Structure formats: structure tokens, C-alpha cells
Amino acid sequence: MNNGIQDYRIAKTLLDRAHHFTYGDGADPVTGHALATEALGHIALAELAFKAACLTPDDMDPQSRREWREAVGIDDRTVHPDAEHDGDEGVFVDPADAQATTP
């Protein structure tokens, strides 16, 4: 599974190839349009991943937020490398943050 950054990079590559086939010397507009269509899917996934990464506790209930972040490959333990499980509702907190709150 790709993360948002990978989807963005794939989309950029596909769009460059689509331009080559559609308008450049590739001379195959059908292939160019197919590549552009595939790029749109990666763009949509990259946007969703970005939005999920930006979710705050106020955006939705904690369980839904956690599920969205996990679905796009964001593990809060990787966001805070020193994070420890707080033993409550699967929330990870950074031990260095004395003000850490439950998302």
C-alpha cells in the first residue's frame, strides 16, 4: 500500500508520461489519456492521505480518526517515535509531552 507521498510521486510521474504520449513525441493519445486517468486515482489517494494526516481530535471521534489515519498508513507511534501506549483506548502519547491529551 502506498502512502500519500508515494501516491503524489506516482501521480506526478504518470502525468509526465501522459503528457509525453498525448502532446509530445509519444504520439499515442489513447495511452496518454489512460495514464492521466490512472494519475487521477493516485491524486485522490494522496489528497485523502494528506487530509487524514491533518485530522485533529476536534474533527471527529477518536476511533474514526484512528481508523482513517491507519487506513492511509499513519501510525501515531511513527509520528512520535518515543511514544508509549497510555493503556486507554489505544491512544499513544509522547512521554516527553507532559500535556499530551487523548485524540
What would your notes on this structure say?
The protein is mainly α. The chain has 2 domains: 1-54; 60-103, no CATH class. Helices cover 56% and strands 4% of the residues. The protein is built from 4 helices and 2 strands. It has helices at residues 4-22, 29-53, 62-71, 76-79; strands at residues 84-85, 92-93. It has a two-stranded antiparallel ribbon. Helix 1 (4-22) packs antiparallel against helix 2 (29-53). The longest helix is centred in the middle third of the chain and has 25 residues, at 29-53. The protein is rod-shaped and about 50 Å long. The chain starts with a helix and ends in a 10-residue tail after the last strand. Residues 85-103 have low confidence and may be disordered.
Share of helical residues: 55-70%
Order of helices and strands: HHHHEE
- As residue ranges, the low-confidence spans are 85-103
Q: Name the shape in a single word.
A: rod-shaped
Spatial arrangement of strands, main beta sheet:
1-2
